[in-house]
Design goal:
The complex is a heterodimer of chains A (about 325) and B (about 375). With about 325 residues, chain A is mainly α. Chain A has helices at about 1-5, 25-60, 80-115, 120-130, 135-160, 160-170, 185-210, 215-220, 225-255, 260-265, 285-290, 300-325. Chain A has one domain (about 30-330): Orthogonal Bundle (MetI-like fold). Chain A has twelve helices and no strands. In chain B, strand 9 (about 260-265) and strand 10 (about 270) form a beta hairpin. Chain B starts with a helix and ends with a strand. The chains are: A mainly alpha (about 325), B alpha/beta (about 375). The interface between A and B is medium-sized, with 30 and 31 residues. Chain B: It comes from Occultella gossypii.
């Protein structure tokens, strides 16, 4: 094929290619058109969403702070002092989810790519992918019915053990202070989110780890490295940007997750780090889902404004992720 | 559905006849006459079979289970009519009704003056009809597996103290004194509230304000005013949260209380556990609202009543419709549906514990409801 398609360099040589219409030219153009249109289409959708959010949120953004006093669910706060705690709650639940899910995912990814026998690795990979297909409302039910009773004794211990009590007495409240059953706090919500973002992170890091150049690994082993040392010297540095982008993908899902947070969390509008107390935090997405059905007038605008802020936040997170990855392009799996 | 359009025209003229028929049927004449008529498909005993088309409603989620039962019952008698109800919440329901998205609405609160004014346009110059067709006791539920008594007695001030966070243990003297026969555990009380804006919260806090304003100082609110509490979204979230740990106490639609314990509420000298009869009784002792008319049967609930045997924590949810509709089909179908809802048959159906456990309205109220529904006409 390569020979047949290259144009004849010598005009006097007998033509090796068929003369006439270039085959496949129409197909090329059609395909190019379709893919270009698709690319533009996604941009248009994104712009339309941004414009919709901005237009609908505008009345809330320009409204006087006193105008929000009539909006029941804002409890007399103005837009910004209402949104900040929500933004904080969104961030803290996502951070908890990442702290739990990323190390776990790297472990699972390494096990599948470098430790497990091939057959087991394949089966395990499918199982992890299957987790991604479970709807979030099921994760919410699972969190209420199974996880909350399970973690309750652990949380009670965290909140009442000697070290926490000593710190409370001598230093002040700790992040574990004041646990109250049932376990409807931000830590439980973070744990449920962690399980939800596990599949997407695991799938991505597994693929990246599998792409580690064989020569790097063999060179490391040839120098006398154990398998763990080989992973540390060859696989992890190579996969770093992949791990970062996988983390950002997971973060994107955790930031926007609605149903599970709505179901397992007793919400509140405070900014603090009391991970085990109920009624302290709430995420933007769950807050919208909770209040939208009964909202009217300026309340709807305020909720959409919080959606716009979440949109901007997610956008920013993705931009930063892109920037980190592009800085480390030399490690990317494409080379 | 297979009927010719011209036959629908008969619809409007039979509304009043139909209303009477249904009322009579439910009144004890035997329900089977109306269903027998259907099989013939003719105008014999079942004027019902002449109706066809579809009507959509939306609104209060509190009514959801009852409306489910009413739609099933109404469709049995009127197979030609498709009724749908979207439990979007009272506010959304009123909004969708006023902008013409739906033909009827369910709402836990009566319409505001402003909404009534815009209702005139929506109703083609007619008026908005508001009927209290769903009366549901709100149970104060608790999770104390160690307590075997069927109910725990609490005075209004005790309930207010518990939810205001002032009474914090189950063996508090205020609770123990009212329950000499019950062994109460030494367990912290965990009050649970609704996290979303809710008609249940509003009705519950209205009750607390009416009966114990010096303890419950937050007034009647739709959104829970105290932060740092356990809470759940929607009734299911409330039930899940209360079920999730021992020592919790919350408030929810009595029909959803399930296996949880319920509080017998102090009224006058006695303690009244919730029951449909006790809840329905409050409508008899309550005066009409200031802006009520013969089309808007809104009520000012007397929550601080001392009448014996009255359960004072109730949610009254209104069915909202127009007195004038654009087409005869809509007018006939809405009137027929709401007439069924108000009929003893419809009210009893919703009262069944496995449907909604609501309290059936009194015959006196039904008469006024039927009179209002008779005034539904077509524009022009």
């Amino acid at each position: 094929m390569a020979v047949a398609e290259s144009p004849p360099s010598d005009p006097e040589a007998p033509p090796k290619v068929r003369v006439g219409r270039t085959p496949g030219r129409l197909g090329n153009r059609v395909f190019q058109g379709i893919s270009t249109a698709s690319g533009i289409f996604i941009l248009i959708i994104l712009a339309a969403v941004a414009i919709f959010l901005l237009v609908r949120a505008w009345p809330a953004l320009i409204a006087a702070p006193s105008a929000f006093e009539d909006v029941g669910f804002m409890l007399g706060r103005d837009l910004w002092s209402w949104v900040w705690p929500l933004l904080f709650g969104t961030a803290i639940s996502s951070v908890i989810a990442l702290v739990v899910a990323v190390p776990l995912s790297i472990g699972i990814g390494l096990f599948i790519s470098h430790y497990a026998p091939r057959r087991l690795a394949q089966g395990l990979g499918y199982l992890i992918d299957l987790l991604a297909a479970i709807p979030s409302v099921i994760f919410g039910l699972w969190g209420i019915q199974w996880l909350q009773p399970l973690v309750s004794p652990l949380f009670t211990w965290l909140s009442t053990n000697g070290a926490t009590a000593w710190l409370e007495e001598n230093v002040g409240p700790t992040i574990f202070t004041g646990y109250q059953a049932p376990a409807r706090n931000i830590l439980t919500a973070g744990l449920v989110l962690a399980i939800m973002i596990l599949p997407i992170i695991t799938a991505t890091v597994r693929e990246v780890f599998l792409q580690t150049p064989r020569l790097h690994e063999e060179a490391s082993l040839a120098l006398g490295a154990t398998r763990w040392e080989m992973i540390r010297q060859a696989v992890l540095p190579f996969g770093r940007s992949g791990v970062i982008s996988a983390t950002m993908l997971g973060l994107g899902r955790a930031l926007g997750e609605t149903m599970a947070v709505l179901m397992v969390l007793s919400p509140g509008y405070l900014i603090n780090f009391y991970l085990l107390q109920p009624g302290q935090h709430q995420s933007i997405a769950a807050n919208i889902a909770s209040h939208f059905p009964e909202a009217s007038g300026l309340g709807v605008d305020a909720l959409i404004a919080s959606g716009l802020i979440l949109f901007i936040m997610t956008f920013g997170v993705n931009l930063i992720a892109r920037w980190i990855i592009s800085r480390r392009a030399e490690f990317s799996g494409a080379n | 559905m297979k009927l010719a359009p011209s036959r629908r025209l008969a619809g409007i003229s039979v509304i009043s006849a139909l209303a009477l028929t249904l009322a009579a049927c439910g009144g004890g004449d035997g329900d089977d006459t109306s269903t027998d008529g259907d099989t013939g498909g003719d105008n014999g005993g079942g004027a019902t079979s002449d109706l066809s088309g579809s009507i959509a409603g939306s609104g209060a989620s509190s009514q959801e289970n009852a409306v489910g039962g009413w739609i099933a019952g109404f469709t049995e008698a009127n197979p030609g009519v498709t009724v749908s109800y979207d439990p979007t919440g009272s506010g959304t329901g009123r909004e969708q009704f006023l902008n013409g998205t739906v033909l009827f609405a369910g709402s836990d609160a009566a319409m505001s003056e402003e909404e009534l004014a815009s209702g005139v346009d929506r109703c083609y110059g007619g008026e908005v009809i508001e009927l209290p067709l769903y009366v549901s006791p709100i149970a104060v539920i608790y999770n104390l597996p160690s307590v075997e008594a069927e109910n725990i007695n609490m005075d209004p001030a005790t309930i207010a103290g518990v939810f205001a966070g002032e009474i914090t243990n189950w063996n508090d003297p205020a609770i123990a004194d009212a329950n000499p026969d019950v062994e109460l555990p030494d367990l912290p009380i965990v009050p649970v509230n609704r996290s979303d804006e809710s008609g249940t919260t509003e009705n519950f806090t209205e009750y607390l304000t009416a009966t114990a304003a010096d303890v419950w100082t937050h007034g009647p609110v739709e959104t829970w005013p105290i932060s740092g509490t356990q809470s759940g979204a929607q009734t299911s979230g409330m039930i899940d949260t209360v079920s999730g740990a021992e020592g919790t106490i919350g408030y929810a639609d009595a029909s959803r209380a399930g296996d949880l314990g319920t509080v017998a509420v102090g009224v006058g000298e006695e303690y009244v556990p919730f029951s449909p009869e006790a809840a329905a009784q409050i409508l008899d002792v309550s005066p009409a609202a200031a802006d009520a008319t013969d089309l808007r049967l809104t009520i000012d609930l007397a929550r601080d009543t001392t009448e014996a045997g009255t359960y004072p924590i109730v949610l009254v949810s209104y069915s909202i419709a127009c007195s004038v509709y654009e087409t005869e089909e809509d007018a006939a179908n809405v009137a027929a549906y709401l007439t069924y809802v108000a009929s003893p048959e419809g009210q009893d159906r919703a009262a069944q514990p496995d449907v909604a456990g609501s309290a059936p309205i009194s015959d006196d109220l039904r008469e006024r409801v039927t009179a209002a529904l008779d005034q539904i006409t077509v524009a022009g």
